[in-house]
Write a structure and sequence with these properties.
With 185 residues, this protein is an alpha/beta fold. It folds into 2 domains: 102 residues, FAD/NAD(P)-binding domain; 66 residues, no CATH class. It has 6 helices and 11 strands. The structure holds flavin-adenine dinucleotide.
């Protein structure tokens, strides 16, 4: 038996799990280490921000996907790799042995190297943190719709444009005329 360990349960490894479920590899034991059980599907994230999709519709349930793939899932954060002993060191659980390791923990915008970003900006990734902040902002709007609000988006790529349009769509639903709009990209 070879131990194939996947770190990160995002888009890439979700596809690996699906492929394994459809066509298992004999002699390979799969383990997934993921710090979340619900993996956000970012293609639908802007639509969720607008309120078109609910949480479940735009998240991948990693537990059922792992079950389909015959994969052991460990909900934990990988914090180090010991290449001498072929071990993944986890935050909570004991080290996980591997023969083959795939690390795909996605990307996170750097906030520390941009002055002011850590204080004022909300990064689009990690998505769970972004959604927490967005939901907080929405409930503040519901409680205090009279407060003026201005949002600036940093980054005018496809993701930034999608988020801008969908945030605007959601915020204008409050319909009180006090939403001041975006500062641009
Ligand atoms: C608003 C927005 C819209 C987008 N729309 C699209 C689109 O329409 N089409 C498209 O192709 N792409 C889109 N993208 C880009 C897409 O999200 C990425 O290309 C894709 O997520 C990369 O997949 P990944 O598996 O590398 O990483 P991710 O999907 O980011 O997954 C990484 C996973 O690893 C986990 N993780 C991180 N650190 C650890 C650790 N130490 N231990 C264990 N687990 C860990 C994270 O929690 C996460 O679940 C969009 C991105 C954004 C922000």
């Amino acid at each position: 038996m070879k131990d194939l360990v996947l770190i990160g349960g995002g888009h890439s490894h979700a596809i690996v799990l699906k492929m394994f479920g459809m066509k298992p590899l004999p002699g390979v034991r799969l383990t997934l280490i993921s710090d979340v059980l619900q993996a956000p599907y970012s293609g639908m994230l802007p639509g969720h921000v607008a309120g078109f999709y609910d949480y479940d519709e735009c998240h991948i349930d990693l537990r059922s996907l792992a079950e389909f793939a015959g994969c052991h899932i460990l909900v934990d954060r990988a914090i180090a790799i010991d290449f001498n002993k072929n071990l993944v060191i986890c935050q909570t659980f004991p080290p996980v042995n591997f023969d083959v390791l795939s690390v795909d923990i996605g990307s996170t915008p750097s906030t520390l190297s941009v002055p002011g970003a850590a204080e004022y900006a909300i990064a689009a990734k990690p998505v769970p943190e972004f959604l927490d902040s967005w939901n907080q902002l929405i409930s503040q709007r519901q409680n205090h719709p009279e407060k003026p609000l201005r949002i600036a988006i940093v980054g005018g790529g496809a993701g930034g444009v999608e988020l801008a349009l969908n945030m605007q769509s959601r915020l204008t639903k409050f319909g009180n005329g006090l939403y001041n709009g975006f500062n641009g990209f």
